[in-house]
Amino acid sequence: MTAGTETITLADAERLDREDPLAGFRDRFLPIEDPGVVAYLDGNSLGRPPAATLDRLRELVTREWGTGMIRSWDRGWLELPERLGDRLGAVCLGAGPGQVIVADSTTVCLYKALRAAVALRPGRTELVTDTDNFPTDRYVVAAIARELGLTVRWIESDPRAGVTAEQLAEVVGEDTAVVTLSHVSYRSAYIADMAGINELVHAAGALAVWDLCHSVGAMPVLLDAAGTDFAVGCTYKFLNAGPGAPAFFYARAEHHDRFDQPIAGWIGARDIFAMAPRFEPADGIRRVLSGTPPVLGLVGVEQGVEMLAEAGIERVRAKSTALTRMAIELSERWLAPLGFTVASPRADEVRGGHVTVTHPKAESLARAWIDNGVIIDFRTPDGIRIGLSPLSTGFAELWRAMDRARGVAA
Ligand SMILES: *Cc1c(COP(=O)(O)O)cnc(C)c1O
Fold it and tell me: Which residues lie with the beta carbon below 6 Å from any ligand 1 atom?
């Protein structure tokens, strides 16, 4: 991209856009009708709307809901959670069919997955996670520990990196029931060694539950190959499914006929319309469901996953890496002299889809960047996350944002 100490120029960035095989996808998002916006660099928190989602929603509301009415449940709505789960599994999770289902929020899915995993390891008394895991994950772990009288073993993770296999090896043992970690750190974007950690967890006789919120849609995830037991993640970040769109839940096939989740509901029952006196779970992944599937949100998931399928997850990862590398290079050249530090990994292989820079005045600077049209987010205590969505973000867009940001920070 750049030779030696040369700074990347706007012309370089424009050339990268011309050579980008995914450039055409940028026009498939609804335009940002705000001339003040220089760049949207927060797709890792909320992806932008694909234009197709609006068309599909209109069709769903008028035809399927408005005209098909309740008959539409039998014309495909009821199968959506499994059908889209299979698509996610094939397109970006490395999961064979029948192991992924779309439901609830990530928080609720994580609660269900952890309870299911703990129940598969009776007699074991410890849950393992890390101090810098995403708040909802830490809260759910602590709540389950209180509820079931378990102990939480906290790994002290480095906020500029994440949990390593070495750290994990020190805390897992015969008392460990379940280990739960984020695959990509929401703070630093560090990618944890999923397969290596799973191996340690299994050697101790425990189970692994992964949160994929910051990896899904930005990089290939290989759940089956890595030996993951359970995983959850959201669809409204790099998958562009829309605010509050439902999450997904992965359960490895070998656990299917033995796992229970704690929110037994009629939609997860073996025969929904038998109205049976007692709950009997459906076979397979469908037992994860509790209540009525959120059809409007599922439409957003469908558009997001199909657009990703067209782009190809390998190409998405390649562009993601190029964008984050450019963000790091420009941060070092332009922001470091202004007191910023890059707090994401330099090595491509362990860096996910965003770049965090820290600064003692990050909170007020983040506000100033946003006021100047550079939409990023602030993460306490001192981080600004620059999120790069490969399908909707361009190289020149990023360049202009970094240029504006340094002007505001100076
Ligand atoms: C965004 C995110 C969540 C969000 O959970 P919700 O239930 O959708 O609010 C959970 N975990 C991680 C790691 C996240 O990045």
Answer: 105-107, 134, 136-137, 182, 186, 211, 213-214, 234, 247
Distance 38 CA to ligand 1 centre (A): 27
Both tokens of 310, joined, read 């067209």
Helix (H, G, I), strand (E, B) or coil at 393: coil
Please state, in angstroms and rounded to a whole number, the distance separating the CA atoms of residues 149 and 157: 24
Q: What is the pLDDT of residue 1?
A: 44
Q: Which of 371, 374, 376, 373 is nearest to 357 (CA)?
A: 376
Is-catalytic flag, 236? yes
Residues 372-401 pLDDT 10s? 999 999 999 999 999 999 999 999 999 999
Spatial distance between the Cα atoms of 200 and 179, rounded to a whole number of angstroms? 10
- Hey, which CATH number is domain 10-50+313-409, 3.30.200.20, 1.10.3720.10, 1.10.10.10, 3.90.1150.10? 3.90.1150.10
Q: How many angstroms is it from 106 CA to the middle of ligand 1?
A: 6
237 is catalytic: yes
Could you identify the residue written with the tokens 């990530």? 106
pLDDT of 3 over the 60 cut: no
Q: Give 373's contacts (C-beta < 8 A, 6+ positions apart).
A: 36, 37, 38, 39, 404
State which fold the 76-309 domain adopts.
Aspartate Aminotransferase; domain 2 (3.40.640)
Residue 387 CA to ligand 1 centre (angstroms): 15
Mutate to test the pocket of ligand 1, among 102, 106, 139, 157 (most ligand atoms within 8 A of CB): 106
Distances (CA, A) of 365 to 245, 372, 374, 404: 30, 10, 11, 12
Write down the pTM of the prediction.
Answer: 0.97
Could you tell me if 237 and 217 are in contact, meaning their C-beta atoms sit under 8 angstroms apart? yes
Ligand 1 center to 74 CA (angstroms): 31
Pocket mutation for ligand 1, best pick of 186, 187, 210, 385 (most atoms within 8 Å of C-beta): 186
